[in-house]
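Researcher: Good morning. I'm working through a list of sequences from a screen, and I'd like to move beyond sequence-only analysis. For each chain I'm collecting a predicted structure so we can compare shapes side by side. This is the next one on the list. No need for commentary yet; just the structure.
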Amino acid sequence: MTLQTWWLFVVTVFFISATPGPNMMHALGRSVQVGFRRSLAAMAGCITALLLALVLSVMGIGAILIAMPRLFDIIRYAGAGYLIFLGIKAWRASDSPDPPGETSGAPLQVSRWALYRTGFLVGISNPKLLLFAAAFFPQFIDHHQPVLPQFGILVVTYLFSDGLWLTLYGLGGRSLSRFLSRRPVRRAFNRLTAIVFVAFGIVILRAKA
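Model: Good morning. Structure tokens for this chain:
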């Protein structure tokens, strides 16, 4: 893999990572809910899921899912169902009253493990990532050179790009939280988040391997 090829990969994944999706919306929402520092646990969960998906794709799991469409469908339905569940949860949370003694928009008390776990589930809920990586990575591989080190460079690059954008979205959530102190605004934000999660769930349900 030449330096020019790597830079092409860097630019490509930079814009892919920047595209708003479940991971980015989750980072933004968690930063609003629990604050930026605590939301880093959720971002770590998303990154762990991405790493697992990329490693599995390198191992050829993406090809196995293509060869076994029923298995892919099971994973797809589970992932879509989880995103839709999160969407419904966000929508309902927007109408719930504030707990006694708490002010609207106050950070939620959620354990870092719970934040990490939810972030991981959001990140791993899209099986299309396996197929995307399985088809995308080989385009940047020089098969006349050792393949494994090249995959390693691509995976680390992808993780760095995704982590950078997760952090930027999280920082945006910290700034946004000041504007969500008013309950109507917070309700609108939660419902927008709900719509995004449900929409991605529906997209996954309608997609075919």
